[in-house]
Amino acid sequence: MTLRCSTPLGLALLVLVATACKKEDPMAELEKSAAAMEKAPAAPAEGAADADPGPAPAEQVKLAIADFKAGKMEDAVTRLQLLRGQSVMSPEQRMALQDNIASVMQEVYSMAQNGDVRAKAAVAQYERMQTAR
To answer: SS3 for 115?
Structure first.
């Protein structure tokens, strides 16, 4: 009798553990964000026509991807934070960027917790930029 009751419970627990342990790949998130940035047109900010906004948001995400792949986590975090402050993004682009930053920072925090010096520097830079806003 207990075997019949515990089998469905065990299967449910196995499914829960298998789905809860899924780790998002930050590179995949960055690339999804870059694709979303290219698809959605940038929304021009009012009065920003005269100012040079610099590289397009999609280009900034591509540069952040290159920095992250090269192990330049501090540069990638800085680039993403500066991009977050730009007003030339559509709502879709901004949502993709927010998801992207969350994924990258989760990976950076994990690496910093494991003792990675570059990740610790990236966390410190991120926190400085957050408090300076």
So the answer is: coil
Model confidence over 3-12: pLDDT tens digits? 555 555 554 5
Query: What are the tokens at 113?
Result: 């917790």
- The tokens describing 88, both together, are 């030339």
CA separation for the pair 9, 12 (Å, rounded): 5
Asked if 27 contacts 69 with a C-beta cutoff of 8 angstroms, the reply is yes
pTM of the predicted structure, to 2 decimals: 0.66
**Directed axis angle between helix 73-84 and helix 57-69, to 10°?**
160
In this structure, what is the dihedral angle of CA atoms 75, 78, 83, 85, given to the nearest 10 degrees? Answer: -170
The DSSP string of the chain is: -HHHHHHHHHHHHHHHHHHHT----HHHHHHHHHHHHHHSPPPPPTT-SSS---S-HHHHHHHHHHHHHTT-HHHHHHHHHHHHT-S---HHHHHHHHHHHHHHHHHHHHHHHTT-HHHHHHHHHHHHHHHH-
Domain boundaries, the chain: 24-42+52-132
